[in-house]
Amino acid sequence: MLNFDQFTCTKCGQNVVCIPRDYAKFERRSFVCDLCLSVIFDKTYPRNLKGTTTIFSAAGNSLGDNIIMEVLERMYKQDNPDETVIFLNDEENHAEAPTKYQATKFFINEFCRNDIPICFQGMIRYFATNDICKYAEVGIYPKLRFEPQKSVILGQPEKYIVFHFRNIEKHPTRPKPDRNVPRETAQGLVDFANSLGYAPVIVGNDDWMPIVGAFDCRNKLSLPEIAWLIQNARLYVGRDSGMVHVAAAVETEIVAWGFSGERWYPKMPKGDFTALQKDESDLENIKQAIKWRIG
Fold first, then answer.
1. Is-same-fold flag (37-137; 160-294)?
2. Phi and psi dihedrals of 278, rounded to 5?
3. How distant, in Å, are the alpha carbons of 187, 207, 217 from that of 210?
4. N or C terminus: which one in the chain shows less Cβ crowding within 10 Å?
């Protein structure tokens, strides 16, 4: 039978239950719980060590991870200009990284699924999502790492809404079919956009799904071209996925659904997006959100 320890978070005041072996970790953090921990934002680390190298673990190789991590990279480099900062990718051996780069600090994202060098004394654990949300609260949002680019093969209608209908197995060992958009939902939203006088434009490189009555740009555009198309749209509509964060980064209004909590919302001003939780993400609610956004 497991025994549990308890403490009160010094930030949020909530009572936290943890297993005994984790108690020392929270004690080192001055009893700040996982949901409140914001290492980069609060700068709770040895700062700007001149002439040293700092490495960050990979956050993941998905589109959304790549976009939202930009704000942490930018802000860390801004606050630590005298350090050499290296961000690892998923393919690199994390256990060997401290020696390879002769690192002084190693920031380990708690969601990292790679090998973690437990014995490295300069290791600093943090939750990337917590820090990204903290920056968003003060109006600092992720930016694209590339410039949007107008497609040379595609024109676009004057009034249009960009849709992305996720339809892919994200990972062979972690498929999430519940995150895919059913065809009846996709077709219903396309028909609704047409009824409002807006041309529906579909983007993405997902598996093919038959949809009629739309400008179908799936598997035809590069990511910079998709970003340009979204940037110039009246609205972006899609399920919670990496493409939502592209829309947020180019500052286009958003209607998105399928979220499991506010911490995963688009990182942009709250007045610029409508986010529906999983239990309210039916076709009629999405239509009403689009209609409200269009005005």
1. yes
2. -55, -40
3. 9, 10, 13
4. N
In a 10 Å sphere around its CB, with 0-12 CB exposed, 13-18 middle and 19+ buried, how is residue 54 labelled?
buried
d(Cα 175, Cα 122) in Å, to the nearest integer? 35
The 8-class DSSP code of residue 178 comes to G
* Pairing relationship of beta strands 84-87 and 53-56 according to DSSP bridges: parallel
**What's the pLDDT score for residue 185?**
96
How is domain 160-294 classified at the architecture level of CATH?
A: 3-Layer(aba) Sandwich (3.40)
Residue with tokens 């437990």: 118
Q: Which residues of the chain have pLDDT under 70?
A: 1-2, 111-118, 169-178
Sheet strand arrangement including 273-277? 215-216, 199-202, 160-164, 235-239, 254-259, 273-277
Cα–Cα distance between 114 and 89 in angstroms, integer?
Answer: 10
Quote the pTM value: 0.88
